[in-house]
Design goal:
This protein is an alpha/beta fold. It has four domains: about 100 residues; about 45 residues, no CATH class; about 140 residues; about 110 residues, Rossmann fold, CATH 3.40.50. The protein contains 22 helices and eight strands. The protein has a four-stranded parallel β-sheet, with helices on both faces. Strands 6-5-7-8 form a four-stranded parallel β-sheet, sandwiched between helices. The protein binds iron/sulfur cluster (2 copies). One iron/sulfur cluster binds next to α4 and α5.
């Protein structure tokens, strides 16, 4: 077997073999973890990416032999709990990913371990609750009074202390508010324009709104609609949508992922076949459809069709620009923008399309911060990980503040909130990049 470092071929991810009973065999899982951890201990490139690798290397260094054989296998779970599946080790660091014969896919090993833990019934009520984004959104936004109560509780120090001790949701984590005016209920869609297909883009768009935009920040969705309308692109919403399944994937509840896929994919596949570009304003949800579902269901033609039709909004807008079909009549300069590109957008391998579009706005300087902010969807909310999430984000908070920005912005609204919390007092406004483009166009 070759032992050369790295590979000249592009990384290739193997499908997730999650229907195989061996996938859930704990002994086989821990044997595979031992094989991969042994490679990692000799390499140690990923030491500064997150807290999973430092925990692994500490376990080894503090073990009886100073080697991996001195670490009890049950301690491996401490590494698993610290991984939030950002994919950065696979995408940016590891020279041993397939097709290299060492076949190291650290995030998918962690995902398998989380699935084994879930099957064993060892997943906490708190983690199940946090991953039920659709259900929580529906409950919290029923009538206005419930929204106001939930938002008030989330801000009340006494209630937050109780949530910390009883639920394990850290008292200092600023939680997103719920909005009683859900995006899907209030979206003003305009299908009246003629369809203008470009060489690279479909001329009509369907929006998969996502739980976060639907329940927490509908303004991001409204801004996307305004940008599309300004560019005379006919738009509609996906007829019916449930959570994309990413929070359930991160929990290891793969059967729940399949159930959600069965709700979403028929509606999305129909739109893909009808020639719609499907835009998703949350990078993790886009990634779910473009990468994770195709790896879980590699033979499903509808999943493949949806993956091909789905795009990050800025990827679509920049392709529209290359097609000569994007308006560039920007009226409002944005000044200094500190822009954070989230991990789940980086791993989509589309380049820095958000930065490219922001930079087209006259009177705008964009500083890009390309590091993990350390939050993930729910990981940084948990009491036991809050301090680590702030520690991982420290360099990002500093880099975002450095250019004395007028705006701070991230395609991931959750990372944006986390960065704002980490930066503390600042004159900079936090705005989603879609909001910045809406402002730049001078749209109210
Ligand atoms: S996927 Fe992300 S969080 Fe998990 S081990 Fe890799 S870099 Fe760390
Ligand atoms: S995941 Fe790859 S790059 Fe990272 S420590 Fe392990 S072997 Fe090295």
């Amino acid at each position: 077997m070759t032992t050369r470092e790295g590979s000249l071929e592009a990384p290739k991810r193997h499908p997730l073999d999650w229907k195989n009973p061996d996938f859930y065999d704990e002994t086989k899982l821990l044997d595979e973890a031992q094989r991969v951890f042994d490679i990692c201990q000799g390499c140690r490139r990923c030491v500064n990416l997150c807290t999973a690798f430092p925990r692994l290397f500490d376990l080894i260094d503090e073990g009886s032999s100073g080697e991996l054989d001195g670490v009890e296998k049950q301690k491996y779970w401490e590494v698993v709990d610290r991984c939030y599946l950002c994919d950065m080790c696979f995408m940016t660091k590891c020279p041993y990913v397939p097709p290299h014969p060492w076949n190291v896919d650290f995030p998918h090993l962690m995902l398998r371990a989380k699935a084994v833990k879930y099957k064993k019934g060892q997943t906490s009520f708190r983690d199940k609750l946090l991953s039920s984004t659709d259900l929580m959104g529906k409950l919290a936004t029923i009538p206005v009074v419930v929204v106001q109560t939930v938002n008030a509780i989330n801000k009340a120090p006494a209630a937050r202390k109780l949530m910390d001790s009883m639920l394990g949701i850290h008292a200092e984590r600023k939680l997103p508010e719920y909005d009683s005016h859900k995006f899907r209920a209030t979206a003003r869609i305009n299908e009246s324009f003629a369809v203008k297909d470009g060489a690279r883009t479909q001329g009509k768009v369907a929006i998969y709104s996502t739980c976060y935009v639907n329940y927490n920040e509908p303004g991001i969705g409204h801004d996307l609609l305004k940008i599309l309308e300004h560019n005379e692109i006919p738009v509609r919403l996906v007829e019916k949508e449930a959570c994309c399944g990413m929070p359930k994937l991160e929990l290891g509840d793969l059967e729940a992922v399949e159930q959600l896929k069965n709700v979403n994919i028929p509606h999305l596949a129909k739109l893909a076949k009808e020639g719609y570009a499907i835009l998703t304003p949350v990078p993790s949800c886009t990634l779910m459809y473009k990468q994770e579902l195709p790896l879980m269901f590699p033979d499903d033609e509808e999943v493949k069709a949806v993956a091909a039709a789905m795009s990050d909004p800025f990827e679509y807008l920049m392709l529209r620009n290359r097609d000569g079909l994007l308006k560039t009549d920007f009226k409002q300069p944005l000044g200094n923008v500190s822009y954070h590109i989230p991990c789940h957008l980086r791993v989509q391998n589309i380049g820095q399309k958000t930065k490219d579009l922001l930079q087209m706005v006259p009177g705008t300087q964009v500083s890009v911060v390309e590091r993990c902010s350390g939050h993930d969807g729910t990981w940084g909310v948990k009491s036991e990980h809050f301090a680590d999430s702030m520690k991982i984000g420290k360099a990002v908070f500093k880099q975002m503040a450095a250019p004395d920005p007028d705006y701070i912005s991230s395609d991931c609204a959750i990372a944006g909130r986390h960065i704002q919390q980490g930066m503390g007092e600042s004159k900079a406004q936090k705005q989603h990049p879609l909001t910045l483009i809406r402002i730049a166009y001078g749209l109210g």
